[in-house]
């Protein structure tokens, strides 16, 4: 175990709520394993105090921090610089304090792609269906545009960010309504992967599922659900029963954390040790 001294650096995560987060366990494990004299804490900050937190981050100074709901977009006006990924997503989940200058980055999409890579999933020149168009979906779509030949996004409402991302990439992005169940079934027939990014099926409402029944899942398709509580959503249970390749959100959580860790420290997170924790 590291000994906290006057030289110990501080990192953290800001959100509301945040006490449930796995991030402190992940990053503190990595710091201790690598012998880095830093600690990582969870900061539960109310919306009216977000600006105070930013001031505190600069004064203390906090070396870097993660950002979770509901501040991934609200944090933008307080930042001095954004990485390309953060500009495309117009959202941030990682901030580095570089000599008082706050630099925003987003690691969700990269984390998802690394989790897929670990499973051997390859999206080059493939059609992909994405359910939902929130912040996580946006980060994943931005990452996928570098590989996929077409991304079909099913959502309940229009999202301006889809046109904004489309204007900056060559991969066609198509928005369709989640009410178009028959259209969804047709799109899945020739898709390489289905990626579920909404909170439908998350505990305590495990029975929720945007796919009506197992007949919607063709025999070849890969299924990802970024929910990790429960470990197996109703959608993933369908995928397992049909013998499909599938994954939940645990890998994405680990690898987005690893991307943040490297963005801050320049070192690789010790993934095997973090996964054990």
TrEMBL record:
Belongs to the shikimate dehydrogenase family. Pathway: Metabolic intermediate biosynthesis; chorismate biosynthesis; chorismate from D-erythrose 4-phosphate and phosphoenolpyruvate: step 4/7. Homodimer. It catalyses: shikimate + NADP(+) = 3-dehydroshikimate + NADPH + H(+). One of its GO terms (molecular function) is shikimate 3-dehydrogenase (NADP+) activity. Its EC number is 1.1.1.25. NADP(+) binds at residues 132-136, 226, 249. Keywords: Amino-acid biosynthesis, Aromatic amino acid biosynthesis, NADP, Oxidoreductase. Shikimate binds at residues 21-23, 68, 93, 108, 228, 256. Involved in the biosynthesis of the chorismate, which leads to the biosynthesis of aromatic amino acids. Catalyzes the reversible NADPH linked reduction of 3-dehydroshikimate (DHSA) to yield shikimate (SA). Residues 13-95 form the Shikimate dehydrogenase substrate binding N-terminal domain. Residues 249-276 form the SDH C-terminal domain. It comes from the Bacteria. The gene is aroE. PANTHER family: BIFUNCTIONAL 3-DEHYDROQUINATE DEHYDRATASE_SHIKIMATE DEHYDROGENASE, CHLOROPLASTIC, SHIKIMATE DEHYDROGENASE. InterPro entries: Aminoacid_DH-like_N_sf, NAD(P)-bd_dom_sf, SDH_C, Shikimate_DH, Shikimate_DH-bd_N, Shikimate_DH_fam. This is Shikimate dehydrogenase (NADP(+)). The active site is at 72 (proton acceptor).
């Amino acid at each position: 175990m590291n000994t906290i001294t006057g030289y110990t650096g501080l990192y953290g995560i800001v959100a509301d709520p945040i006490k449930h987060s796995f991030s402190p366990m992940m990053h503190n494990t990595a710091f201790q394993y690598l012998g880095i004299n830093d600690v990582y804490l969870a900061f539960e900050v109310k919306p009216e105090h977000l600006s105070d937190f930013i001031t505190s981050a600069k004064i203390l100074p906090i070396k870097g921090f993660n950002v979770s709901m509901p501040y991934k977009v609200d944090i933008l006006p307080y930042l001095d610089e954004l990485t390309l990924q953060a500009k495309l997503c117009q959202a941030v989940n990682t901030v580095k304090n570089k000599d008082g200058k706050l630099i925003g980055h987003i690691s969700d999409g990269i984390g998802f792609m690394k989790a897929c890579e670990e499973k051997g999933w390859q999206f080059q020149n493939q059609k992909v269906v994405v359910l939902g168009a929130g912040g996580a979906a946006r980060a994943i779509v931005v990452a996928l545009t570098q590989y996929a030949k077409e991304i079909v996004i099913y959502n309940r409402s229009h999202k301006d960010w889809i046109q904004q991302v489309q204007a900056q990439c060559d991969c066609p992005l198509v928005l369709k309504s989640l009410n178009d169940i028959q259209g969804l079934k047709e799109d899945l027939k020739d898709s390489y992967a289905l990626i579920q990014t909404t909170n439908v099926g998350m505990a305590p409402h495990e029975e929720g599922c945007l796919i009506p029944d197992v007949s919607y899942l063709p025999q070849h398709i890969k299924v990802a659900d970024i929910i990790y509580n429960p470990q197996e959503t109703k959608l993933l249970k369908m995928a397992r029963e049909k013998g499909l390749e599938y994954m939940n959100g645990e890998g994405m959580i680990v690898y987005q954390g690893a991307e943040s860790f490297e963005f801050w420290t320049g070192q690789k997170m010790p993934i095997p040790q973090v996964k054990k924790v």
